[in-house]
Amino acid sequence: MSAANDENRKHPMPFTRVELCLLRVGEQGLQVLLGRRAGPVEAGAWALPGGVLRIDLDADLDAAAQRVAKERLGIALPYLRQQAAFGGATRDARGWALSIVYRALAPFDMALHAGKRIEELRWFSADDAAADASLAFDHEALIAGAVADLRFEVEALNLPFEAFPEQFTLTEVQTFCELVLARRLDKSSFRRRLAERGCVAPLAGQFRTGANRPAQLYVPA
Amino acid sequence: MSAANDENRKHPMPFTRVELCLLRVGEQGLQVLLGRRAGPVEAGAWALPGGVLRIDLDADLDAAAQRVAKERLGIALPYLRQQAAFGGATRDARGWALSIVYRALAPFDMALHAGKRIEELRWFSADDAAADASLAFDHEALIAGAVADLRFEVEALNLPFEAFPEQFTLTEVQTFCELVLARRLDKSSFRRRLAERGCVAPLAGQFRTGANRPAQLYVPA
DNA sequence: GTAATAGTGTCTCTTAGACAATATGCT
DNA sequence: AGCATATTGTCTAAGAGACACTATTAC
Q1: What does the alpha-carbon distance between residue A2 and residue B12 come to, in Å, rounded to a whole number?
Q2: What is the pTM of this model?
Q3: Lowest-confidence range among A43-57, A168-182, B102-116, B118-132?
Q4: For B60, nearest residue in chain A (alpha carbons)
């Protein structure tokens, strides 16, 4: 046994988990993925999917988050980003609990499979969930933090292209941002800002056709 | 023993610490407080002051950071802010280690007393330390993150008044910001922005006198 | 008066919101 | 042609940097 675990014996270490705050943009706005807990505590309550940190399996925190995504949701999540740490004696009835929260934005059509200890996965309105005191533990606060930080980034036009299709039109980008931010954006100004940042590049001669004027297709740049 | 500690038995939990990234504004710019380690590992190396999370003593992470400040530095640190979490199998030779980093800005004249396991406390240039690979563990990266985030806040004029004297002149505020950001600011523009945000209020009839024109004194607002 | 710092004014450039005008493909 | 959406252009206001000017005290 390592010296670190000797320390563990001298002072008990907190019950440490990784929680995933997976968001997506639905037709009504930002959504967050919650799972109905199978137990052992807060059974039946909706909570962020998460799992125990396994120092025998996980090389670091990022790897732990990826493993938990795979186990609980059946999928690898690129672009998981560390969001915050919550720790305290009273946030979990089982004792002193430490949660490292990871955040990611999912494409709308991502396929998920509820893993062990999750009875059902469902998408909820992110703003409702961020203010829903009936969620398990303090997950309401974790969601609020993740939503605020995502909005801050999108507001600054740091776009999460991993959640986009390979090719997209500028109108689609704008609609995406409007749904994240829950407010309308000016078309002209929005395109000017996109062009200034140089974060998208047109695909020469590629257009999305529909019932009216075709739209130039773009890729991340 | 609580259920959480039953979980600890089933899966070993990481060696969890709180590290303090204490910054201050010196005459040459931003400085960070480092302690020379007394052991057991990395003895003699400079590192952020920190300590083991004690779930029997600390109600939550913030309380843990306060306790560590008291034990290691002999002082209470108001306005400690959670900065980030670093965790991995290889960052501490003793085994899987998780560090929750807290950041605070200290007044320049704060009195400190090196606590147990610290042989000496010393202020270093923050930019040098953020690029100094000879520091213990990965503390170089923790410092870089804290410095970047503090600069971001000061850039947005979210000023850490806790590090200010009770009363101050606008020139003193500007000098403070210039030392944090390591660049010059325009006086007129700086005062305009301060006034717009309404974050300082003049003390009617109170002036700082010196060898030349007296300066209006302000307080946080 | 001179030096030194405090405080203000003006000009301009950049950014972005509001809103209008034009372009293009479909039916 | 008429519709719906794409794309561009113009006007304006806010914010901030550059820089110069004025103000006030000590000596």
Answers
A1: 11
A2: 0.94
A3: B102-116
A4: A88
